[in-house]
Here is the input.
Amino acid sequence: MRTSLKQEKLPDATLLNYAPLPGSRKVYQNGCLYKDVRVPFREVALSLNNAPLRLYDTSGPYTDPLVKVDITRGLPSLRRDWILGRGDVEYLAEPTSHDRKQRDNDLDLAAIRFPGIRKPLRAKTGANVTQMHYARRGITTPEMEFIALREGCDPEF
Here is the structure.
């Protein structure tokens, strides 16, 4: 004779969060030039009275106990304001890629699309929007500050 298991309420499958790794915690280092730059690190507790070891954390918002990630909405676009703030890009009216248009028109994929699909951006006429272009002109972008902090460079550059 089979016995049924007591059904427990399952967690909401659309919300993702993972507990921090044991003996560690997620911390952020703020930018100096750009206050909205936040570089994620994992502080790992060490034994024998040593200071914690700080490692770059690639887990995204999933291991931040203060963030609730709804996988049906997608992750926030962290760089969008940085990119738009430079004033050298514009929105395209619609995607121009053949593959993207084909996917957008495929009704079999409708059930797995995120709401509020972002419009693509492109460089304005005559603009160059690469990090190398900015660096050669002496412009430090938020992306550059993020990488410098991630790599352990002096935040004052």
Notes: The chain has a mean pLDDT of 87. The radius of gyration is 21 Å.
